[in-house]
Amino acid sequence: MQRALLSLDGLSVGDGFGQCFFTSTEVIEQWVHHRTPPPPPWVVTDDTMMALSIVRSLKRRGRIEQDILANAFAVEFVREPDRGYGGTAQHILRAISEGMSWKAVSRQAFGGQGSCGKGGAMRSAPIGAYFADDYDRVIAEARASGSIPRIWARPS
Fold first, then answer.
1. pTM of the prediction?
2. Fewest beta carbons less than 10 Å away: which of 22, 47, 102, 152?
3. Quick check: 69 and 145 in contact, CB under 8 A?
């Protein structure tokens, strides 16, 4: 579990850092020119909150249970919906929080194909760290986790 928590720390710092770059080109050029990091605050985004839900799931259950994880994602969304969730994500997470099955809702998004975004990958670090000694398990658990959020990724 310690490795998963450390990976969550790194993921959250990187996520917060990256979020700072959704600003003007001029501001970014100044940071680069002066070799300074973006000033605080570095905000916690949807990807970090979903990764936190993954870590909590691993701590409680030792594996990814898709229905429970999907509900955990919805709970975090309802708690703080302004963390950067895309429009499709908002629709799906709201529907899950109202009792709809994540599988049924996901079939409605983009003709059932999902967004094919990077969201599952953004949140997978804790899974790799948690199961670092078992490569096959990393793959299985990452697939279980990634098949839920892949439909919720923000467009790049």
1. 0.85
2. 22
3. yes
Question: Is the dihedral angle over the CA atoms 101, 103, 106, 108 positive or is it negative?
Answer: negative
Reading the block at residue 7, the tokens are: 């990976």
Tens digit of each residue's pLDDT (9 = 90 or more) over 66-100:
999 999 999 999 999 999 988 888 888 999 999 99
- Segments in the chain forming alpha helices (H): 2-19, 25-34, 46-61, 66-79, 87-97, 102-108, 119-122, 125-130, 135-146
The parent domain of residue 148 ranges over: 2-12+44-152
- Residue 83 domain-assigned (yes or no): yes
Total number of domains in the chain? 1
Neighbour count for residue 33 (Cβ, 10 Å): 8
User: What is the gyration radius of the CA atoms in the chain, in angstroms?
Assistant: 16
102 falls within a domain: yes
DSSP 40: S
